[in-house]
Design brief:
The complex is a heterotrimer of chains A (360), B (361) and C (82). Chain A is of the alpha/beta class. Helix content of chain A is 39%, strand content 18%. The longest helix of chain A has 17 residues. In chain B, strand 1 and strand 2 form a beta hairpin. At the A-B interface, helix 1, helix 2, strand 4, helix 5 and helix 10 of A face strand 15 and strand 16 of B.
């Protein structure tokens, strides 16, 4: 790590920002939220540059119905639930998957959906349900897994589909018109799949500065500098400082697999509601791999937890401390909503890293 | 281990792990009767356990062990080891049990005198694995220079399918000139870490079957009596505090420091000793090396101005070659553990909550 | 929302039905990943890995940029050779 580079970038950001009144940047992606805290970048930015979190945390935007469905499924004696670690502790009506596991349910944490396929192949007597959450970065893996299950005739394998796409959510926020954002730090790994061009509408139609950036500290500083330059010059576009991994067109192979397996669908985002064409549904030929259909689950149901303001947090309307539950009834140890449970939820990040800012 | 070696089947509402179907014909396993206290137990001890572990204190095989009289202040510690899997790169549950217990004593400033060891074996554990673990226990005890003075063996029904749990106790004596006391810490005191971080926890996590990560990382489990003795030889008042950053990692120890001293802690990210392999593996799994367990490292707080001497003493010892000063205690209100990041920003270090899991996000 | 790390391909294995996997070196650890999303990746390439899959190849045409990026990210200790 060249901290000399970092210092130079920080100095330039501060110098440019001094000539501007207020700069509000939405960092869309939960991994960016955490990385910005962990790198200490938040503590070196100029005071008039405000970072606001967006809806890019897959766990935070997962409907309560999805979690309740996963737990309901886990309680069936013939079912094994395979999940990424991210979902294990999210609380539903009947506790979390972690608690179900403690009570004897078969819940396996996987690093990859390939592990779920391998398990299904060696345990034909069990119904294996993989909790397929994540954005465009992760959805291609699910597509490949479904295709493999089809080829190999793994009739005991299904996915509980919770995948969502980022751009429709951003457009939903922008159409609403009441969130004052000047620019977007775009998710670097989603962009690997979609290509940077997918976000050009945000710059062209809504006039917002955009930059695709990775997750290392110097990357994020380069990204923030690009946004400040665009804002200062009033020349919004989609810049790409992560060109080492992200192209304009994206990963064509991944996009083809997505197209083969999924069609766009209107899905429910937690505490926001249904956003048109913001998710995926399995195409009819592959619908037998849909756990929702096979087990009669209701994924799209959503309900409010009393006092929980996660929906406003993920839309960038409030910062976590503005929620009356934050740090009191809702903490890392006793989370109420997914923004606190998720390791990259905005509330969890604030609770973990921002104590000093709170106590000042 | 791969996915094939585990088969869970329902028996009523209980899940019972069955044995790997691939055990060689004639391979022997522990059965419930081995824990019965009768002939089989005796044979198990005589044939498989005592030959490796026997020593003066253990030999009488009485209900308890008589220890030599102590001159220093007695110190007692206890621990339980339930790690999964029981064998992992760099060690096994046996090595871990001995080193962990010995290290708990040495960070108290105690000279370890003896350990006790209770094995709770699951029916079905193969003799081959048991022999390996007992061998590790013997080797670790010899390395540490601490005898296993007394023990116990029980056998239980198959439950988790891992085969073995170990509980220990350790006794040591603290010489009168040792002045380890967290209340002696003042602002400006330096914080030292005796080597590279996060290896044990990552080695174990990578060994768990569903990660498929063949990590070049090995557990750092090691007995640290010699290293700590070298540090304490720097003189009575020099070292004020010692702790081994096991569960909860370095972050846990820093949180302990803040809680016990009401002082703040400031460390520098660029000073943290983390190998590239560890950093990479941790990033892949979404883990923070600060939160990951170590079993062969010490965190020490030493008087300001004395840190070079203590570092030299550490680096002269094979287990302390990568010792480094990572920061210091500071007066701060409210008292917090903070890190100056590589880019010159700051972030807070909190006690980790719960178990870290592999994530996609 | 996506943890992905760079790694270098050390070997490539062709599997049935045309899908290939690779052994990737992560500065000491070895991981097997699917190349189904980046089928053109070759031994010696740097790729980005997410949840058991390669999702991108770090472009050879920008080799200098790749070195700089990996160096900045603390993955390679030495800056690119001149």
């Amino acid at each position: 790590m060249n901290s000399h580079n970092a210092r130079r970038l920080i100095d330039e950001i501060c110098s440019l920002a001094a000539d501007l009144e207020k700069i509000r940047i939405m960092e869309v992606c939960g991994t960016h939220t955490v990385s910005l805290f962990r790198s200490g970048i938040r503590t070196v930015l100029p005071a008039n540059l405000r970072l606001v979190s967006g809806p890019g945390c897959p766990v935070c935007v997962t409907s309560q119905g999805y979690i309740d469905s996963a737990i309901e499924a886990a309680q069936r004696p013939d079912v094994t639930v395979c999940t990424y670690g991210d979902m294990l502790r999210v609380p539903g009506r009947q506790g979390s998957l972690e608690q179900q596991r403690a009570g004897g349910a078969r819940v396996i944490v996987c690093y990859s959906i390939r592990d779920g396929i391998a398990y299904a192949a060696t345990h034909p007597e069990e119904q294996v349900i993989f909790l397929a959450v994540g954005f465009e970065t992760t959805a291609p893996a699910t597509a490949l897994a479904v295709l493999e299950a089809d080829t190999r005739g793994l009739d005991n394998f299904t996915v509980l589909n919770g995948h969502k796409t980022v751009l429709p959510a951003l457009e939903f926020l922008l159409r609403g018109g009441d969130i004052p954002i000047d620019g977007f730090l775009l998710p670097g790994h989603v962009s690997v799949i979609t290509g940077s061009h997918a976000f050009e509408e945000v710059a062209e139609r809504y006039g917002k500065a955009c930059v695709v950036t990775g997750f290392e500290p110097v990357q994020m500083l380069r990204g923030i500098l690009s946004l400040v330059r665009q804002i200062a010059a009033n020349e919004p576009r989609v810049d790409n400082v992560y060109s080492v991994a992200v192209t304009r067109e994206g990963n064509r192979v991944a996009l083809d697999r997505l197209e083969e397996v999924f069609e766009p669908a209107d899905v429910v985002w937690r505490a926001i509601g249904r956003i048109a064409m913001s998710g995926y549904a399995l195409r009819p030929a592959l619908r037998k791999f849909d756990a929702e259909k096979r087990f009669g689950l209701a994924v799209d149901e959503d309900y409010e937890l009393p006092g929980c303001r996660c929906g406003e947090v993920i839309q960038g309307r409030i910062d976590p401390p503005e929620c009356s539950l934050f740090g009191r009834a809702c903490t890392r140890e006793h989370p109420v909503g997914p923004c606190m449970v998720s390791s990259e939820g905005t509330c969890a990040a604030w609770h973990r890293y921002a104590l000093v800012e709170r106590s000042r | 281990m791969n996915a094939d070696t585990r088969n869970d089947r329902d028996v009523g509402s209980k899940k019972i792990a069955t044995l790997p179907e691939t055990l060689a014909a004639g391979e022997q396993r522990i059965v419930l009767a081995h824990g019965g206290g009768g002939e089989l137990t005796r044979r198990l001890l005589d044939e498989r356990i005592l030959p490796r572990l026997n020593n003066e204190l253990l030999a009488p095989l009485a209900d308890g062990a008589l220890l030599p009289p102590m001159t220093g202040r007695p110190c007692l510690t206890t621990d339980a080891y339930v790690i999964q899997p029981i064998e992992f790169p760099g060690g096994d549950i046996g090595r871990l049990a001995v080193c962990g217990t010995v290290n708990d004593l040495v960070v108290m400033g105690a000279r370890p005198l003896a350990l006790s060891l209770a094995l709770v074996i699951e029916e079905g554990l193969s003799f081959e694995v048991l022999d390996r673990v007992v061998g590790s226990i013997a080797a670790a005890a010899a390395e540490a220079g601490v005898p296993i003075a007394t023990g116990d063996t029980k056998v239980v029904e198959r439950a988790r399918g891992d085969g073995l749990l170990i509980t220990t106790a350790g006794v040591g004596e603290v010489p009168s000139d040792v002045q380890l006391d967290v209340h002696r810490i003042v602002p400006g005191d330096r914080i030292i870490v005796t080597g590279t971080l996060a290896e044990h926890g990552l080695a174990v996590m990578a060994a768990r079957e569903n990660l498929g990560l063949n990590s070049g990382i090995a557990s750092d489990a090691a007995p640290l009596g010699g290293l700590v003795a070298a540090m304490l030889e720097c003189g009575g008042g020099t070292v004020k505090f010692l702790r081994d950053p096991t569960r909860g990692g370095l972050a846990g120890v820093l949180a302990d420091l803040v809680e016990n001293t009401a002082l703040g802690v400031e460390i520098r990210e660029e000073a943290l000793p983390v190998t590239t392999a560890v950093r990479h593996a941790a990033e892949l799994l979404g883990l923070d090396p600060l939160n990951v367990a170590n079993e062969g490292k010490i965190v020490a707080v030493v008087a300001a101005g004395d840190e070079q001497r203590v570092l030299q003493a550490c680096r002269a010892h094979p287990l302390g070659r990568n010792a480094v000063c990572i920061g210091e205690c500071v007066a701060a209100s409210p008292p917090l553990a903070e890190m100056v990041t590589a880019i010159g920003g700051r972030r807070i270090i909190l006690r980790p909550y719960g178990e870290d899991l592999p994530r996609i996000c | 929302m996506c943890l992905a790390v760079p790694g270098k391909i050390t070997s490539r294995m062709e599997r049935e039905n045309g899908l290939s996997t690779a052994t990737v070196d992560l500065q000491g650890s070895r991981l097997e990943v699917s190349l189904a999303l980046v089928p053109q990746a070759r031994v010696g390439d740097w790729i980005l890995i997410h949840a058991g899959y390669a999702i991108s190849r770090l472009e050879e045409s920008e080799a200098r940029e790749t070195w700089d990026y990996l160096h900045e990210a603390g993955i390679l200790d030495k800056p690119a050779p001149e």
